Amino acid sequence: MKKQSCLLILLLFLSAAAFGQSVVSDVWFQSGIAHPSAGQYFELDLFVNAGDDEVLLFMADFHFDAAQLQLDASYYNNGVYCPVSSGGTFFVYGIRTDQISVFASEPSGFSGGTNTYILTMRFQALVPDPEYPDITVNGLRNMDDETILPDNPLFEVGRLNTNQTGPTQWHTVTLQNTYNNPIVIMGTPSNNGPNAMILRVRNVTQTSFQYQLDEWNYLNGIHNAETFGYLVIEKGGYRVNGIALYADDATGVTDVWKRENIDIRAFSGNQIILAQTVTTNESTAVTTRLKKIDDFRFDIRVQEEEGEDGTHSPETIHYLAIDKSSGISGINGKNFISSIEQKITSTWVNIFSPIANPIVFGQILTYEDDDTASLRYNPISSETIAIKITEEQSADSETTHDKETIGYVFFEE
After folding, report:
1. How far apart are CA 181 and CA 184, in angstroms?
2. Contact predicate 116/75, CB 8 Å
3. Which of 277, 261, 37 is nearest to 134 (CA)?
4. Percentage of residues in the chain with pLDDT exceeding 90?
5. Cβ contact 314:256 at 8 Å
6. Which terminus of the chain is more exposed, N or C, with fewer CB under 10 A?
7. Full-prediction pTM beyond 0.85?
8. Residue 285 near residue 277 (C-beta atoms within 8 A)
9. 361 or 59, which is more confident?
10. 156 and 104 together in one domain
11. Is the residue at 1 inside a domain?
12. Are 119 and 235 in the same domain?
């Protein structure tokens, strides 16, 4: 029998940005205690494979209505509990989705993931608040990334040039590939027509989708020809030439901010997120706004023109998270660069492109100005792209927008 020893929990804290190597089973449940007195607790057990010294990362939907909580952990093996020498204390109120990171070292004599341990996480009320008496956890998900991500996503990118004869006209794109779960992203439109507009998508199938140049509702819906790109990728997580990508959909997105989790542990907080509304559950024109982007989550909402009521029915948003690249990279033979630019306003800013005449994709990543806005681009030369933020004018004629951070991806055609 190999000698066994306890895993030492070195540190516990919230919202850490460390990378882990263990494999922990996903557990979804509702568990907790109502009206706890000081010192009362409940425990959650997870199965953990042995590995090297590691960081165990979990995502949980916490409903902790206590003034102060303590999380302790221990490992259980062959009928013996290995207690933890120290735990963590944190303050939580109300409802929040957050990350727990447990720093641990491997028990001596075990390696290579050949043994399974039970990690017991004990949540204890230290100073219960009588006004908010309950402690519950509605789920716990492993956020470690030991899985080797595929490097060859089913993918295509193209360029379109289309005008809009009226607000009811829709255009169809027939895809080069057949997808199981296609994620569709429209590029940033050019600035040929003077009226503000966005691109809207509907009827996404395995082999096609429809789109339109959607002027804001206070306009007549007739628009000059614009040039823009489209991108389709199979839903999932990938790592291509060292660049992480994650394609997914966010459902039930309204005018109220919604937290969206990235279910792979592969980003460092410098990723670009491109987002596209792909349903028309309500016909009112909307743009997609993001904020609070970090390595495993972001906030998302749709935004109507200021002259509308601001309330919007739930829509589905497709999004692609992609690492900031250090230079030209490639996906399935298509070169691209991805980067972040700060302090973008309603004034044109020139961005150099090492890819000649690129297909332009861009997204506002912050919410410093709450005026309804989106991006437009203008090709200055084969290697220079001008980008600015454009506001609509349904409520007033002012179009000056405060500084925002944007992300962009330039693809070769």
Report:
1. 10
2. no
3. 37
4. 54
5. no
6. N
7. no
8. no
9. 361
10. no
11. no
12. no
